[in-house]
Amino acid sequence: MPRNLKITLAYDGHDFAGWQVQPGRATIQGSLAAAIERVTGEKVLPQGSGRTDAGVHALAQVSTFALECPIPVTNLHIALNDKLPESIRVLEVEEAHAEFHARKSAKAKTYRYRIYRDQICPPFLARYVYHHPYPLNEEHMIDAAGLVAGEHDFTSFAAVDPEKNKGDGEPNNVRTIFSSHFGRESSELVYTVRGNGFLHHMVRNLVGTFLMVGKGSLGSDDLRRILELRDRSAAAATAPASGLFLVSVEY
Q1: Cα–Cα–Cα angle for 213, 219, 220, rounded to 5 degrees
Q2: Phi and psi at residue 249, in whole multiples of 5°?
Q3: Which residues are part of the catalytic machinery?
Q4: Which domains does the chain have, with CATH numbers?
Q5: What distance in Å separates the CA atoms of residue 22 and residue 3, rounded to the nearest whole number?
Q6: Higher pLDDT, 162 or 24
Q7: Distance in angstroms (rounded) separating the CA atoms of residues 8 and 28
Q8: What global pTM score does this model have?
């Protein structure tokens, strides 16, 4: 009887083409699958809690897969980190019940987006922040962030490939945001958002629009209108991937 294994991992996404396996490109899913095969001899496709984009980082991504190999989880943990690139680290390996699924069982996720505000960005931070030293009304951004909390149709903040319901093929872009706020952490303006799920590019599109609020190009009423329009072209450009981190997944 195969075991259902749950892996928690952290990664620096800068050099990867995102989570999902892509032919000829380095991905997190592909790297993890290759490491599992090297250690156990089994071909598996680990399922993640979500598909982080190219350049996006994770502090605690969760993945599940079934494994026949009887190797103890402690040994598997050590062996996988020995085979994986240093930019991907397995934090924990544990056995989960048969019905547990990294994506389908998730109840909430938290993302964080880091904006570096000083004139000169230290080179060792550049791949982990969006450097924006230009004038912003941060108070307006703080006020605007709370407007997206609650249940909304986030079509205006989804990528052009909206997620589909498996049943009827209609887009389902309704999500519930439990908390949405900006805070200052030294030289960084940090956006933290927690919700029951997120659409492709949703957090980065929200940040891009909040930046327009900070620049004075949009106001709170504009943000409400953009939400109601359910039109991606109404919102601002997508913020760069470098500042985005998947912080945690709740089950």
Answers
A1: 105
A2: -125, 135
A3: 53
A4: 3-96 (3.30.70.580), 108-250 (3.30.70.660)
A5: 27
A6: 24
A7: 13
A8: 0.94
